[in-house]
Amino acid sequence: GFSKDPARRTLYHSLILNEPIEKVVLSTQVDGLDIIPADKNLVGASVELVSLEGREYFLRKAIESIKANYRFVILDCPPALDLVTLNALVASDSVLIPIQCEYLALEGVSELLDTLMRIRRTLNPDLAVEGILLTMYDERTTLSHQVASDLRSFFGAQVFSTVIPRNVRLAEAPSHGKPIIFYDIHSRGAESYVQLAKEVIANDQKRAGTGPECPDPGARAATAG
Length: 225
What we know:
About 3% of the residues have low confidence. This protein has a domain of 92 residues: Rossmann fold (3-Layer(aba) Sandwich), CATH 3.40.50. The strands form two sheets. The protein has a four-stranded mixed β-sheet with strand order 1-2-7-3, with no helix packed on it. By secondary structure, it is of the alpha/beta class. It contains nine helices and seven strands, in the order αββααβαβαβαβαααβ.
């Protein structure tokens, strides 16, 4: 992980202060993985963007110069649909929707999909649903089974085969400043995220028509937020 550094350039500096995105990107210990950090200033970015012309497109323009360097650019968003999240949706090709296996989360899926449809009609016609991901799944509870069953019945193939279980090692990893694959590669949580990555890559290969071959080991990914 990275320690907090008040002097470090973040996504905020690129979005609001027009810092070149290349100056914000940080390399990690994971070969092929870079990150664009965020900080508390990003919380107020929505207020600063609201009066600006073309405010929905700032992130798309910011990452345009680096997109060709990566196979995947992952934008990590909070659940609130503020202007920063809207910027991420406008800049994206597709959306991966995590859904906790709880009743209230299930109720919000249709509303979220309606919002995505409005964004497609007005701001980003190429926006697609990458898939719906079941998280916090507890195979011991009837509720988890019911939520999973309902989602698969209603959305079919849009729901990933992989589910992310409720797992104590997943909860512990952030406090140690490590991704789960470094913290405990053999945990159920790590195995599930590895399986999800394989599923996303396989879907990407199908769309690209490249078949089921393994991805290029030199391919890179960036994550922002």
